[in-house]
Amino acid sequence: MRLPFLTTSLWAVAAPTCWDDRVIPLAPGPGTGDLDAAALREHYAYPEGLSAPWVRVNFVSSIDGAVSVDGTSGGLGSDADKQVFGVLRELADVVLVGAGTVRAEGYRGARKDTRGRDTPPPIAVVTGSADLDPGSRLFTDTRVPPIVLTLGSAPQGKLDRLVAAGADVAVLDTLTPDALLAELARRGLYRVLCEGGPSLFGALTAADAVDELCLTVAPLLAAGTAGRIAHGPEGSPARPLTLVGVLRAEDTLLLRYRRVAPIE
Ligand SMILES: NC(=O)c1ccc[n+]([C@@H]2O[C@H](COP(=O)([O-])OP(=O)(O)OC[C@H]3O[C@@H](n4cnc5c(N)ncnc54)[C@H](OP(=O)(O)O)[C@@H]3O)[C@@H](O)[C@H]2O)c1
After folding, report:
1. What is the pTM (predicted TM-score) of this model?
2. Assigned superfamily of 78-222
3. Could you tell me the distance, in angstroms and rounded to a whole number, from the CA of residue 228 to the centre of ligand 1?
4. Residue 205 CB–ligand 1 contact under 6 Å
5. Ligand 1 in reach of 214 Cβ (< 6 A)
6. Is there a contact between 154 and 177 (Cβ–Cβ < 8 Å)?
7. 3-class DSSP assignment, residue 180
8. Order of strands, sheet of 123-126, starting from the edge strand that comes earlier in the sequence
9. Beta-bridge mates of residue 151
10. CA separation, residue 122 to residues 28, 32, 73, 166, 250 (Å)
């Protein structure tokens, strides 16, 4: 099924000055059952012929900017968000995620094969402490070993237990975005999907390592004490992005922003 065009009323929301032919809008419809997986894969395709990591970040937020409800993102999700979440994983070579998110959200392995590969993308967890539960679903409920990106300063006993649980442990000199992405590149994992959390996203932003943000705006006012989708060091410059995609599924907006290409 082709995606139908967006109603006029949403064009105002979608900032017409940012319009270009990469925007594939979705008309308001009865729900995610109408979303076409092939069209979504086309909409979210990574650039062809990558020779270095392309970092796509995916988040869901309430309209008032909350990154979680009761400590997890589950309360913000919708069927449309879940569908896009799945498609983004299908397109990725690796899912990069901070340990705080793994611990809060009870991560397990991705299920569906990456397109062009016959295995799902591994989950690559960034943790300086190696404080991950080897009995958790990240290790017990996965088709491929998770990658643990960590430091030599992590307790050796914890590293040993993660290796025994089947993890592919990479001990790096530092966990800066450059070092993390260099390790993924060394493994040929260029289509990077970062699923957060806010600390890792903040570090990637400060390092100007974010190529793209996929943001689901959930039709909720969450208030509470939840943080934003990114936090990091003060003083790093704000990074301009350009709107390249708007999907709408009922009251949910699924936005896609890309880095503004540097002027040659
Ligand atoms: N709404 C959404 O889409 C969404 C998505 C993801 C997460 N969340 C929410 O965000 C919350 C977790 O936030 P968080 O900020 O703690 O999570 P996070 O960014 O996933 O994890 C932070 C942890 O990552 C590790 N880390 C190591 N090197 C790092 C580096 N260079 N930069 C950043 N982190 C590094 C550290 O783990 P060690 O302490 O092990 O060293 C650090 O404590 C949860 O409530 C989760 O539900 C929401």
Report:
1. 0.90
2. Dihydrofolate Reductase, subunit A (3.40.430.10)
3. 12
4. no
5. no
6. no
7. helix
8. 168-172, 147-151, 123-126, 94-98, 191-194, 54-62, 212-218, 252-259, 241-249
9. 172
10. 34, 26, 21, 12, 32
Q: Which residue has the tokens 């990658």?
A: 147
Which of 127, 138, 174, 204 to probe ligand 1 with, by most ligand atoms within 8 A of CB?
127
Query: What are the residue boundaries of the structural domains of the chain, listed by start?
Result: 78-222
Instruction: Tell me which of 101, 148, 201 to substitute to probe ligand 1's pocket, judged by most ligand atoms within 8 Å of the beta carbon.
Output: 101
71 lines ligand 1 (CB under 6 A): yes
Work out the burial of residue 40: count CB atoms within 10 Å of its CB; fewer than 13 is exposed, 13-18 middle, 19 or more buried.
buried
The first and second tokens of residue 250, run together, are 């009922």
Atom 24 of ligand 1, nearest CA residue:
98
Q: How far apart are CA 213 and CA 55, in angstroms?
A: 9
pLDDT in tens, 144-180: 999 999 999 999 999 999 999 999 999 999 999 999 9
Residue given tokens 């995916």 in the structure block = 58
Residue 159 structure tokens: 């590293």
pLDDT digits (tens, 9 = 90+) for 105-131: 999 999 999 888 899 999 999 999 999
Closest ligand 1 atom to Cα of 58:
3
From the list 43, 73, 79, 72, the residue with the least C-alpha distance to 251 is 79
> How far is ligand 1, taken at its centre, from the CA of residue 204, in Å?
12
